[in-house]
Amino acid sequence: MLLISSKTLAGVIATICINVGVFLRNLIGFKLSSIMVVVGIFSMAYYLVEKGISHQAPKYIAAQRNLSLGLWIMGAGTMVWIVTIIQSMLSNSGLINTELLAIGTGILIVGCAELLISLRFVPR
Fold first, then answer.
1. Distances (CA, A) of 83 to 39, 55, 102
2. 67-120 pLDDT, tens per residue?
3. Per-residue DSSP letters for the chain?
4. Which of 71, 72, 75, 93 is nearest to 83 (CA)?
5. Which residue from 117, 78, 81 is spatially nearest to 98, judged by alpha carbons?
6. Predicted TM-score (pTM) of this structure
7. How far apart are CA 93 and CA 3, in angstroms?
């Protein structure tokens, strides 16, 4: 049995999702491509945080609690985004609810900002 760490798995998922979402957009469609890219962004953020923590970087260790909060916020934004896109795929009209998409994007950006701010202003 091959055991893969969550950090490595997140890096692989991020690479695959972002590449497939960007380069195969015309083949798989805009909605599925959007889902792939957003999942890739979240996975890449998780990979980078876990990489910093596993390397025992002092900045990451000191801000570990805030980084995990940022990842949770990003996860919530990702889920709102995915549910909105799936709902539009399943509806008869196929229109995307732009208000929910904007809310999901806002939550995702707040999570990214939390990651950046917690690393920038880490107490020493």
1. 12, 34, 13
2. 899 999 999 999 999 999 999 888 888 788 889 999 999 999 999 999 999 988
3. -----HHHHHHHHHHHHHHHHHHTHHHH-HHHHHHHHHHHHHHHHHHHHHHHHHTT-HHHHHTHHHHHHHHHHHHHHHHHHHHHHHHHHHSSS----HHHHHHHHHHHHHHHHHHHHHHHT---
4. 75
5. 81
6. 0.85
7. 44
